[in-house]
Amino acid sequence: MEKKIAAAQHNMERNMLGITYKDRKTNECVRKQTQVQDIIRTINKKLYNNQIRTLTAKTFDDLTSLQKLNLSKNEISALPVNVFSGLTSLEILDLFSNQISTLPANCFSGLKSLKELNLNNNQIRTLTAKTFDDLTSLQKLYLYSNQISTLPDDVFSDLISLKELHLNDNQIRTLSAKTFNDLSALEKLYLHKNNITTIDYGAFAFFASSILILNLMDNKLQNYRDRTFEGLTNLKEL
Hints:
By secondary structure, the chain is of the alpha/beta class. The chain has a domain at 1-34. 15% of the residues lie in helices and 11% in strands. It has helices at residues 2-17, 21-26, 28-32, 36-44; strands at residues 68-70, 92-94, 116-118, 140-142, 164-166, 174-175, 188-190, 198-199, 213-215, 223-224. The strands form 2 sheets. Strands 1-2-3-4-5-7-9 form a 7-stranded parallel beta sheet, with no helix packed on it. It has a 3-stranded parallel beta sheet with strand order 6-8-10, with no helix packed on it.
């Protein structure tokens, strides 16, 4: 039975792409392009700008070769725990312009290959210390234009490869000494257009030697301690 299913699947692939059996058998490049995962990857590019409201824990099961998933401009309000856990090859996840209000612990669990995560223009109010667990390969995180007011200590601590963090256009009030723990690779941090009044000493210590751009424009800064910017030896723009 399994052989019959596989044969039917291969026939479907060839019919969809207009490839003959001879082409598939003799041409390695063509063969690689006729995997079901490649077809699915193309289909999933068309999920943006729809009216998707709900995702379940099994929505993306078995898409282990998917590299890019664009769910932007939908009406998604919640991300179930482990909803993306089967997407082990995913590198880019775009959730721009949905209606997400909370990011529960482990909602991005299993995305160990993810390099870019876009959560801009949602309604996110809170983050937890476990929100970004497992994202050890992430290099770019976009969280601007949300309603975030507080950043818990160690909230980004799993993001050891992160180079860009966009937190502008939120309602953040305070940066503690542990807000950016373990972000030793960070090069660009955007915090403009928030309500920041206080920056604790040591808030920028973890990325002191790597940071190139630090944008604090349009805040309400009143209190920051002496030596707040100590050690930012490679900073190019403040």
